[in-house]
Amino acid sequence: MSLPLHPEATPGAVPNLLFDRFRFVLNETSHPGNVGSAARAIKTMGFGRLVLAAPKAGADVLRDPEAVALASGADDVLAAALVVPDLESALKGVSWAVALSARTREYGPPNAEPRVSAALAGQHAAAGEAVAFVFGSERTGLANADVERCNALVHIPANPAYSSLNLSQAVQLIAYEARLACLDAETSGAAAAGQDALATRDDVEGMLSHLERALVELDFLDPDNPKKLMTRLRRLFAKSHLEREEVNILRGISKHILERKTRR
Ligand code: SAH
């Protein structure tokens, strides 16, 4: 939304505004072939924004022969992919981020099935927000800290005895579900709704660090032994789909606590 993604992309590469609000983020991908296949996977479903956070091969991955070969007719999406140094940069301006994990997690954002999660992501996009699907690396997947940066978690309910899909195949499956969600939003007219007042991820992150400082001041949070408090609060806020105004109220409370403490 606020980040000019793919400044070098041909205007109109993704002519549909709704589809253009989705970005597919590959974190620390090792195999150039998977990057090319992911470009193809998203283009076949009508999307075009591929973001590579800290790819192992660096920005050269965009020109890697294996990546180019597997992108096939999606060479434009591959060439326009944005390479950024870390996941935080990849999520700039995103309001709704969905982590894809081959493993179920004890902590972190609420877990949902691909179809349910894609439908919810579609609603956010239809409301004018930038949405991201975040995929982990081939060998280690997403770290817990990466998953916690997201608002939702999706585990594709595959064979429990062998549930780890190839990265680009996981991208394909989610891109398909996101396509169905977009087509549904278009036919129901939801996509006509403009920007709404939902808080962005950046707003919520800013509020959380403000709140954390206030909780430390109150001696409610021990910075040397934080336990899972911030993780739990992050999860709580992820569930409540905060509006910008609500974030401002929470920031106001934290500000007051900090001011009163320093006055004493
Ligand atoms: N060995 C890794 C798996 C990596 S697969 C691990 O144990 O986590 C590479 C990426 O593909 C994952 O990080 C995830 O984003 C996606 N992926 C693979 N299988 C998936 C599944 N069943 N559900 C959701 N995402 C999956």
TrEMBL record:
What Gene Ontology terms for biological process does this UniProt record contain? tRNA nucleoside ribose methylation
Which Gene3D superfamilies does the record match to this protein?
1.10.8.590, 3.40.1280.10
Keyword flag Chloroplast: no
Where does it sit, as one GO cellular component term?
Answer: cytosol
Where is the protein localized? Cytoplasm
EC annotation from Swiss-Prot or TrEMBL: 2.1.1.200
InterPro entries assigned to the protein according to its UniProt record, in alphabetical order:
Alpha/beta_knot_MTases (IPR029028), RNA_MeTrfase_TrmJ/LasT (IPR004384), SpoU_MeTrfase (IPR001537), tRNA_m1G_MTases_N (IPR029026)
Q: What does this protein do?
A: Catalyzes the formation of 2'O-methylated cytidine (Cm32) or 2'O-methylated uridine (Um32) at position 32 in tRNA.
SUBUNIT field: Homodimer.
Tell me what this protein is called: tRNA (cytidine/uridine-2'-O-)-methyltransferase TrmJ
Please name the source species: Pandoraea terrae
